[in-house]
């Protein structure tokens, strides 16, 4: 009788444990865009880590879509378990390509990001709607010995153009540390995008001067966004100025 009761108790404990066990949370891979670096995600990373997520802020090379997507694809391929891919700005085109061929990518999050269709480039979409002022804020191109040019935002114009809702002192540091993007990367056409098969979420600000809000809204609707968060007055670096809103949407996409 004692053995039977013990067996019942053990079975009950095991079943109870199974009932409350939770699946492992996905790893969040963050991909920055042009004129930014991995540190632009610091506020978001802090929140996600506090909430129990593993996070990788990938160093996007910003050389070409095919090269950059290949690098991010390698990062995703090194991760065991499910992944949520998050892209900012040009990084949106990168994740749209990098997710292809990976069954562990569960969802995509576009943070003030481009979501091109096949045959479109970042430059195509940037000029599709009025309101963007990036071209007038660029510094003189840096010619590369390997061919082509690197593009930077003029440091004197960086705060107003790129990060108007970030404190001036912080924006000055971001301007000095900005990562350049090749002109070729911005004009490279996209292949078949992963957002056509994966659920996606979008967040952007109405004060974005790099990508007009109308363009961002158009891409979100076209991709069938599960939820689109529009932050009133937020600049192009909404993840820096409003990390809590971005982190909240990423966590929603991770469920």
UniProtKB/TrEMBL annotation:
<protein>
    <submittedName>
        <fullName>Alpha/beta hydrolase</fullName>
    </submittedName>
</protein>
<dbReference type="Pfam" id="PF12697">
    <property type="entry name" value="Abhydrolase_6"/>
</dbReference>
<feature type="signal peptide">
    <location>
        <begin position="1"/>
        <end position="21"/>
    </location>
</feature>
<keyword id="KW-0378">Hydrolase</keyword>
<dbReference type="InterPro" id="IPR029058">
    <property type="entry name" value="AB_hydrolase_fold"/>
</dbReference>
<dbReference type="InterPro" id="IPR052897">
    <property type="entry name" value="Sec-Metab_Biosynth_Hydrolase"/>
</dbReference>
<feature type="domain" description="AB hydrolase-1">
    <location>
        <begin position="28"/>
        <end position="248"/>
    </location>
</feature>
<dbReference type="GO" id="GO:0016787">
    <property type="term" value="F:hydrolase activity"/>
</dbReference>
<dbReference type="InterPro" id="IPR000073">
    <property type="entry name" value="AB_hydrolase_1"/>
</dbReference>
<keyword id="KW-0732">Signal</keyword>
